[in-house]
Structure formats: structure tokens, C-alpha cells
Sequence to fold (265 residues):
Amino acid sequence: MIEKTYIVDIKRNALDDGPGIRTLIFFKGCPLSCVWCQNPEAKSPFLELSFDKGECSECMVCLTSCDQNAINFGYDFRIDRSICNLCGLCVDICPNSALNFVGKEYSIEELMKIVEQEKVAENTIEQARRNAEETIKTAKEKANKIIMEAKSVDSKKSQHEINKESEEKKRRLKEELEGQCEIEVVNGHSQMGSGSLPAQDIPTKLISLIPKSMSADALGYHLRAYEPPIFIRIVKDELLLDFRTIRDDEIKIVEQAIRGIFSGS
Fold:
């Protein structure tokens, strides 16, 4: 029974060479000679020394390290393999890693330990995936519950009540801003949710403001810069206030802000 073998590479989380995510162990000593072979360094079962000409700076420090005089710069691949004893001194001294061993010796016990560790890691990943799926499922359930509760709350208000509230807020704004804005009540939608919570549209009434002495964009800019900032929808030349998002006590703040913007204070 073989107690030790040479391994070219251990590739974790591999997506190639088969289905799924796996740990691949590349053994040296492949008996095949495929035309399309991507790992010819794995053909020989023995330890080998490789030379990368592109990494070599020809500093020649490897010459001084070789007791066998196996380094020959007259060779394209630098190594006289007939006398090289694979001592590895040139590998250790090369500053550019142009010389490297192909293959690392592992015992069967060492390989099995690595495989077991990878198995634990894969189980951990699988558990994390299941936890993520459960978290997403729980989040969706909570989101749907919030949506249903919000719709339930909305359904408690009759259309008459919604219309009455919007007209009252329109009246209050007109008293304060008459002559500065055209103010009307229009049909629209409040959007609930975003991000991980699915977006839902709820029918509502919007208060439309069309400023007379400045553009809607300019008024919107000043409102965002106000303290506290007031964020408002802008559609074409209209500023739209969604009365669902503004409490009764906040209407006064909106009134003061717009009045202050037009008066320059």
C-alpha cells in the first residue's frame, strides 16, 4: 500500500471538473495523455523541478547554490535534469520564484485530514445556506403580515373620511399660503415598503402645490434644506404632499416652512 504520494494542487470551492462545489485533489502520476490536458505537470508520479523563464531575471544566484552544477544558462530550461538531485537549494534561493517544485508529498492520513476539514467546512456552508433561507422566509412572512395589517388599518377609514381629511388640510394650507401656491387635492397612491419589504400601493389623496414665484424644483430644494428637512414628491411642476405621511401637528411645520421660503426668512 502506498503510504505517501505527491499532490500538485488542492483546489477548494471548485466549480470546474464536475457538478456542484467540491474540493479537488490533483495527484501526480496521471496515466493518460489527453491532447487537451490542462495539467501536464501532473503526468509524472515523481517530484519535479519547474522553471518559469518569464519570472527569471538572470541574476544567477541559483548557480552559486547548486552543488551538482545542474544549473546551465545555456539550456532553455536552465536545468540539466540528468545530474539534478532535486535538493531544492535553488528553489529556496531564487528571489523571483522562477524555480519551483512541482508536487508536494502528503501521507494518506494528511490527505484524509484535509478532506475531513473540507467536509466540515462544506457542512457549515450548507447550514449557513439553510439559515439564510429560513431568515428570508421569516422576513417575507413578517413583511406580508405588516402589509396585511397596514391594509387592514387603511380599510377602517372610509373614502368619505379620507376625502374629508384631505380637504381640511387643503383648507388650512390655503389660509396660510393663499397667493403663493395653487393648492388642490388630487388622487394618488402611497407606497408602502421597499428594499426587503415588497412595495405596495395604497390609494390616497395628495395635496398638489404649484408655486407661483419659483419652480417646483427650487421649492423642493429649499424644503429639503429646511430644519427639519421636508421631503416631498415632485411630478412635473407639482409638489405632492401625501397627507398619510404628515400628521396633523406636522402640517403647521410645512406651512411655516413654505411661508418662510417665500418671504426669504
Summary: The first helix runs from residue 61 to 65. Helices lie at 61-65, 89-93, 108-155, 159-177, 216-225, 248-263.
